[in-house]
């Protein structure tokens, strides 16, 4: 039954993914046209760099995963699909979409950079991989593959994170949801800065960024760290999601 | 002969006992009426059988297969529930297509025919449907899935008299051609009296009655006639309820009718009267 559930989820996401890429390509085109004006406006050679397109994909996939759960859950139970089948199909959907969108993103980057190089080399786009590992920035096939694997693991981590939050929020009550939605920003943006400034002298923030740096191997220039981190986080989020999902029931309100 | 076996199922919501150690069997190819007052536990029972919620104790078996988290067992059942679990934005024709994917025996052509009979526009999305048409849509799916067991929880919610009548006729027509197990949970008791073969009454989470309609209605009878004669006749009998209209009276009595019924008319017991008597606390 998980095959049908998988087909359903993929089909559900198809339309919104097409819309996403239409918008993305539209935005990129608009940026190119507007930046072409800047480049050609004077004698000074101007180089324009776009980045963050894969961050947009990360946010998109996270939100997609976060908000598609409750609809799929009801539809599956209505059609006699067990929770374990839904879980299996959700994991397959995450892996498929992460792979597919990592491929599409790489194709878009390659196409844009190819177009940019043909048009004089003043425009180019860089992805998160290039930002984290500037010394590895290259158009060699090996680096393109490594960059693709990096995106794939990153996407799948955020999708699994989205699924975890979706199932978690589905299980908890309204008051707990409000407490989390209010509590986390208050802790991160009010309490933590106060504590850091007055008591710890920035140790917590520094330790956090050091941990992120280690997890993604940025300073050490080891993309393998990010693959392992992605895999472990994917397994962690998926595992917790299953523990929450296996006892989830339909809600009457 | 397996059917659906519910074995010692209990369910609690906090301190409230929704189902208390319930055991029953839904046999194959029979029409059941699942009756009970609001909050008696009917929907809870149906939701447990169809894996939507979990029992605290006990188990459910479908043709010998454990029902909980079992795709194979669940594929033999369909629950049309009061609440809608289909995506709001999805068009009905697309839901039919997906239902065909989940239930291989879903009859698309029959679904289209039923939709036409009920004047249901399949190009509409779920959120565009009124309460009545939402019920009709769910009924169309339930009647077209062709699973051995179909549960209908408040199937005629929001339906006008014409559509209710049409539904009952279609249900019986389908059942007469290809019998299957139908469990109808409803508050409109009078309307299903002529349809159901077996009756299950739930009260405060426990089954207080589970037998054939014939046996159930054979528990008593109704006697009608001039009020004075009826009063005289019923003086030493256990009366369930009475209806009075002008000088005429009808009394609903438990037990077997006497031979002496001069000037009185004896008829079958009214299911609703008996139900009210049994479920009044």
3D structure, described in words:
The complex is a heterodimer of chains A (253) and B (281). With 253 residues, chain A is mainly α. Chain A has 8 helices and 2 strands; from the N terminus they run αβααβααααα. Chain A has helices spanning 2-39, 53-78, 83-118, 128-132, 141-171, 174-200, 203-216, 223-245, and strands spanning 48-51, 123-126. Chain A has a two-stranded parallel ribbon. In chain A, helix 1 (2-39) runs antiparallel to helix 2 and helix 1 (2-39) packs parallel to helix 3. Chain A is globular. Chain B has 281 residues and is of the alpha/beta class. Helix content of chain B is 32%, strand content 31%. In chain B, helix 4 packs antiparallel against helix 5. The radius of gyration of chain B is 21 Å and the shape is globular. The model of chain B has no long low-confidence stretch (mean pLDDT 91). The interface between A and B is medium-sized, with 21 and 24 residues.
Question: Which characteristics define this entry?
Answer:
heterodimer, A: 253 residues, mainly alpha, two-stranded parallel sheet, 2 strands, B: 281 residues, alpha/beta, Rossmann fold, 2 domains, six-stranded mixed beta sheet, four-stranded antiparallel beta sheet, 32% helix
């Amino acid at each position: 039954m998980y095959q049908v559930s998988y087909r359903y989820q993929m089909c559900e996401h198809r339309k919104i993914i097409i819309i996403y890429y239409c918008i993305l390509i539209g935005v990129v085109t608009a940026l190119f046209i507007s930046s072409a004006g800047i480049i050609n406006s004077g004698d000074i050679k101007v180089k324009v760099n776009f980045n963050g397109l894969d961050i947009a994909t990360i946010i998109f996939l996270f939100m997609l995963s976060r908000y598609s759960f409750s609809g799929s859950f009801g539809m599956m139970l209505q059609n006699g699909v067990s929770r374990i089948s839904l879980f299996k199909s959700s994991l397959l959907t995450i892996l498929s979409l992460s792979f597919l969108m990592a491929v599409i993103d790489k194709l878009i980057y390659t196409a844009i950079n190819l177009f940019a190089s043909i048009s004089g080399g003043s425009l180019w786009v860089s992805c998160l991989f290039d930002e984290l590992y500037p010394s590895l920035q290259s158009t060699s096939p090996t680096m393109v593959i490594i960059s693709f694997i990096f995106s794939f693991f990153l996407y799948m981590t955020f999708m699994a994170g989205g699924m975890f939050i979706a199932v978690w929020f589905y299980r908890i009550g309204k008051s707990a949801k409000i407490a989390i939605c209010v509590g986390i920003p208050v802790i991160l943006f009010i309490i933590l800065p106060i504590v850091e400034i007055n008591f710890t002298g920035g140790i917590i923030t520094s330790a956090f960024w050091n941990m992120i740096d280690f997890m993604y191997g940025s300073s050490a220039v080891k993309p393998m760290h990010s693959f392992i981190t992605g895999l472990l986080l994917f397994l962690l989020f998926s595992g917790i999601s299953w523990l929450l999902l296996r006892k989830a029931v339909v809600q009457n309100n | 002969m397996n059917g659906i076996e519910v074995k010692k199922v209990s369910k609690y919501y906090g301190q409230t006992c929704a189902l208390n150690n319930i055991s029953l069997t839904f046999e194959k190819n029979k029409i059941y009426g699942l009756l009970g007052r609001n909050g008696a536990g009917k929907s809870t029972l149906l939701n447990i059988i169809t894996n939507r919620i979990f029992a605290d104790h006990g188990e459910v078996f479908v043709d010998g297969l454990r029902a909980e988290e079992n795709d194979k067992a669940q594929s033999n059942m369909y629950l049309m529930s009061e609440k809608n679990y289909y995506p709001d934005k999805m068009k009905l024709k697309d839901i039919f297509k997906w239902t065909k994917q989940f239930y291989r025996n879903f009859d698309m052509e029959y679904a289209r025919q039923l939709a036409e009979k009920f004047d249901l526009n399949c190009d509409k999305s779920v959120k565009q449907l009124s309460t009545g048409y939402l019920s009709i849509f769910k009924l169309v799916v339930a009647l077209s899935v062709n699973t051995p067991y179909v549960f209908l929880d408040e199937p005629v919610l929001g339906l006008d008299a014409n559509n209710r009548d049409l539904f009952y006729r279609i249900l019986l027509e389908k059942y007469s051609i290809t019998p299957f197990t139908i469990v109808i949970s409803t508050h409109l008791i009078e309307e299903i009296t002529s349809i159901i073969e077996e009756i299950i009454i739930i009260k405060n989470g426990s089954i207080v009655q589970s037998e054939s309609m014939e046996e159930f209605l054979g528990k008593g009878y109704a006697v009608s006639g001039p009020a004075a004669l009826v009063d005289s006749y019923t003086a030493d009998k256990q009366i369930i309820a009475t209806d009075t209209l002008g000088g005429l009276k009808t009394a609903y009595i438990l037990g077997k009718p006497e031979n002496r019924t001069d000037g009185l008319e004896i008829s079958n017991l009214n299911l609703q009267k008996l139900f009210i008597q049994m479920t009044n606390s």
